Amino acid sequence: MKISSLPLPQRKQAHEANKLAKRLRHAVGQAIADFNMIEDGDRVMVCLSGGKDSYTLLDVLLMLQAKAPVRFELVAVNLDQKHPGFPAHVLPDYLKSRGVEFHVLEQDTYSVVKRVVPEGKTMCGLCSRLRRGALYSFAEREGFTKIALGHHRDDIIETMFLNMFHGGKLKGMPPKLVSDDGRHVVIRPLAYVCEDDLAAYAEERAFPIIPCDLCGSQETLQRKQIKAMLDEWERRTPGRVENIFRALGDVRPAQLADRALFDFASLGAREGARADAHAWLAGEPAGAAAPDEG
Ligand code: SF4
Question: What is the pTM of this model?
């Protein structure tokens, strides 16, 4: 049925849904182009957890694939981690209905995590490592050239603050990376998409969401606090979170203080000056050079 023949309220709703779908396609397309995420001939493994983010990732990639001038394959892969009550039929049913090639891997990481992590501690660190291991091994066996994950803009920003507040490091979660062993190229095509848009799109498309709390674990308190901090900032100053994200793509090493990124030592140094002129300071015990206040 044409949108123009719908009653006004439905017309408005359909119009909003169209706008949202366009915005998502544009944001994902832009991220793919900016970071050269997908090339002609790629076999992309799309990791599907059953949550709103990965369903949307697959959906938007399928739309882009249909229009792209280059050819690439998309294969959905889910890891059934044997969480109690995991509805194993939901993803296969959905993927068959969409005509998408898929694999479901089975590995009981749940029991391992339960056995190893003390009661009351968060299980997510170990669980994610095990999941990553299983998915990456599969990708290698099957010859996938890219692994697509559903992390979005807000995940990236939260991770940056977590690293800053609790690790003393300025690092986030890159839109594209090569795994530590050099064997996998991981891409995050939702890097430019905010979580609210993903939630709205998932609702609009009525994806059969699988609850993410089947494992019984909770988000860490630290991540919750950072989410609350960002929500509060955004409420008081709309646009702040987007500005923070933009800052991640506009880094000025000369205005920071990382000596490995910028050669501050040579800055303004006089020719012929002794290179070891400060060696004596490095050896000074803390406080020894402070002026005498007596
Ligand atoms: S929430 Fe559960 S399934 Fe998700 S990473 Fe944490 S332990 Fe694993």
Answer: 0.90
Report CA(285)–ligand 1 centroid distance (Å).
46
* Predicted confidence (pLDDT) per residue in 16-70, tens digit: 889 999 999 999 999 999 999 999 999 999 999 999 999 999 999 999 999 999 9
The answer to the question of residue 10 being in a domain is yes
pLDDT per residue over 239-259, tens digit each? 999 999 999 999 999 999 999
Per-residue burial over 84-116, b if 16 or more Cβ lie within 10 Å, else e, is: eebeeeebeebbeeeebebeeeebebbebbeee
274 in any annotated domain: no
- The rounded Å distance from CA 84 to ligand 1 centre is 12
123 lines ligand 1 (CB under 6 A): yes
CATH number for the domain harbouring residue 107: 3.40.50.620
Whether 217 lines ligand 1, by a CB cut-off of 6 Å, is yes
Which residues constitute the domain of residue 27?
A: 3-252
**Residue 166 Cα, ligand 1 centroid: separation in angstroms?**
20
Q: How many domains does the chain have?
A: 1
**Gap between the Cα atoms of 56 and 129, Å rounded:** 23
